[in-house]
Amino acid sequence: MSAEKQLLITGGAGFIGSHLAQACLERGHRVRILDNFATGLKKNLEGMEVDLVEGDIRDEALLAKIMKDVDGVFHLAALPSVPRSVKDPFASHDNNITGVLRVLIAARDAGAKMVFAGSSSAYGDTEVLPKREDMPVSPLSPYAVTKVAGEHYLKAFARVYGMPTAIVRYFNVFGPRQRNDSPYSGVIAKFCRAALEGEVCKIEGDGLQSRDFTYVADAARGTLLAMEKEVPGGEVINLAGGNRISLLDLVNSLSKFCGSQVRVEHGPDRPGDVKHSQADVSKALALLGFKTEFSFDEGLEKTLEWYRKEHPAPC
């Protein structure tokens, strides 16, 4: 896909979506954003020249209207979070499965390529590491089920209609603009807030659980590459650094950047969570030429500095 394309980002006012919008603009693309602001924020788009449409991804008429001149669609809009899906599985289903199907049909009818934001939660708690795209999926939570269903819809549309589609599986993306004011916030966002405010970091479990944390600028760049590069229809591609960081390692790194030891409190394991996660990143390199540019510590330092500016505190 060459420059000067009209791209639509659903959920583009959100954490990852706003960084993706920025990456698209820097590459010379025109950007339209559809967001209902359930979790996204208009301030995430400050300074960006985008066509912003407020609305719902399940609105069939609205989708048909805003898709008319679109060359490619990034579908990031979703109700995120494992705990949220455990609390209200139907809401996750309605937003994440009905939503993706509505967007997919509209993109098909517009002749647009679609890139879907999948999740490493699709792999479940397999003991085999690193996690490869050809492994069987084994979702443990309602949220993970919705993400796997979305993937299967994109694969089916590629097979049945010959529609160009691609799926990127994110692995614990973190960075600036990630909300830390919600019970469903990501662990790094929560821990940064706790560290800056001198509060206790609450770890669910022993803290040895590990994740392949991915800095948001890298995730956005990889997602854009999945749109720009020619890949087989319905291809699933891990976007991550291929490393594992435990929550205790995270706390130690935060302590280093704060200049004092961050306090920790342990609680019971969280239902639906996986113990360890690490991506095999060989396909991303082979198909997209993608590898991460930011180390975990580099990304964490940038993230903590952003939270410091947004929420000045003693740390």
Which H/E pattern describes the elements?
A: EHEEHEHHEHEEHEEEHEEHEHH
Rg (C-alpha, Å): 19 Å
Mean pLDDT: 95
Count of individual helical segments = 10
What does this structure look like?
By secondary structure, the protein is an alpha/beta fold. The protein has two domains: 6-172 and 216-239, NAD(P)-binding Rossmann-like Domain (Rossmann fold), CATH 3.40.50.720; 174-211 and 243-278 and 294-310, Alpha-Beta Complex (UDP-galactose 4-epimerase, domain 1). Helices cover 39% and strands 17% of the residues. It contains ten helices and 13 strands. It has a seven-stranded parallel β-sheet with strand order 3-2-1-4-5-6-11, sandwiched between helices. Strands 7-10 form a two-stranded parallel sheet. α6 (187-196) runs parallel beside α8 (247-258). The protein is globular and about 55 Å long. The termini are far apart. 48% of the residues are buried. The model has no long low-confidence stretch (mean pLDDT 95).
Task: State the main characteristics.
about 15% strand; Rossmann fold; two-stranded parallel ribbon; alpha/beta; 2 domains; 13 strands; globular
In short:
The chain has helices spanning 15-26, 60-66, 82-87, 89-110, 142-161, 187-196, 216-228, 247-258, 282-288, 296-310, and strands at 6-10, 30-35, 51-54, 72-75, 113-119, 165-170, 173-174, 201-204, 210-211, 214-215, 235-239, 245-246, 264-267.
In terms of topology, how is this protein built?
Elements (H helix, E strand, L loop, with lengths): L5 E5 L4 H12 L3 E6 L15 E4 L5 H7 L5 E4 L6 H6 L1 H22 L2 E7 L22 H20 L3 E6 L2 E2 L12 H10 L4 E4 L5 E2 L2 E2 H13 L6 E5 L5 E2 H12 L5 E4 L14 H7 L7 H15 L5
Parallel strand pairs: 1-2, 1-4, 2-3, 4-5, 5-6, 6-11, 7-10, 8-13
Antiparallel strand pairs: 9-12
Helix pairs in contact: 1-7, 4-5, 6-8, 6-10
